[in-house]
Amino acid sequence: MGAQAARALAAAHAAGVVHRDVKPANVMLTASGVKVVDFGLALGARTAGGALLGTPAYVAPEVLAGAEPAPSADVYALGVLLRETLPPPVPSGLAALVGRCLDADPGRRPTAAGVGEALAEAAHLPPIASPSSSTPPPDGADEEADAATGVIGDRPAPANPTRILDEPGPPPTGPDRTSRRTLLIGGGAAAALLAVLVLLAAFTGGGRPAASPGRPAATAPSTPSTPSTPVCAVAYAVTGQWAGGFQASVRITNLGARALDGWRLSWTFARGERITQIWNGTRTQTEGEITVTAADYNRGIAPHGTAEFGFLGTASGGAPEPRPDTFTLDGSPCRQA
Fold this sequence. Notes:
Among the domains are: 2-122, Orthogonal Bundle (Transferase(Phosphotransferase), domain 1), CATH 1.10.510; 232-336, Immunoglobulin-like (Sandwich), CATH 2.60.40.290. It is built from 7 helices and 14 strands. It has helices at 2-14, 61-64, 71-85, 92-101, 112-122, 141-149, 175-204; strands at 27-30, 33-36, 232-242, 245-254, 260-261, 264-268, 274-279, 281-286, 289-294, 300-301, 306-314, 328-329, 332-333, 335-336. A 5-stranded mixed β-sheet has the order 7-11-4-3-14, with no helix packed on it. Strand 3 and strand 4 (245-254) form a beta hairpin. The chain starts with a helix and ends with a strand. The relative contact order is 0.12.
């Protein structure tokens, strides 16, 4: 868990984001892995009155002294979290790593990526692939690796790169397409023959009594369509509200039997509220229409797994709590949890 949390912070730091409130309550264990959530304090180190924002036990000493929060402050908070959660006896190597995370000098602390690598090695987790290697690859390895990852330098992209699930696939080619055409032709001939036989039976009477005049032909009773089962559930909560603004958190649960890869959640704010800041996702907004797209690190949701994001928004001062009526995930309706 510590390795995955450190890797998540490293991804945030690489994007220029400092969490500023790393603590156990903001590290969630889900079916698809560990998630670092609630980036609500990532904008602005201090309030207008100069008060510090954060959880006191996890705030780095230089931040308490007035310095601007930096990635090293997140590493300090991660060190406090590790010190509280690692079960004894802690191996000497890990104890030394935690001690370096808690160093009073932020310049001597390791990076979140370095902490993640050390913890992953201790937990025997596979390392994250490095973009370069000092050992030359064997003949043909470049082509195989490029075909697997879709990163191929100056050569043209492969014909079938990795896609988001709702992107239409390429048209079939080769023998499969030929066999489908053959089946379609054969099926068309069979349908034509069946139509001729039906007409002959109608003209000859087929040996059966004709229907009574004036009596309508019997029809099969129609079966009412059953509503499709929702593929997702959405838990939406307003966690803070003030004059002209509010903060909300959203949790998506995958109710389907297949994993999701690259989700998009959409809804409408009826009174035109606008999102001003978002974490754990990206947004597009046209008037009151909102679409939130997954970040790279939370794009996958396993069956019955969850993904979370949050945002700050603007609202009119006297308006009631901003709450959407419906949500859709990749175009399919979601049940509100």
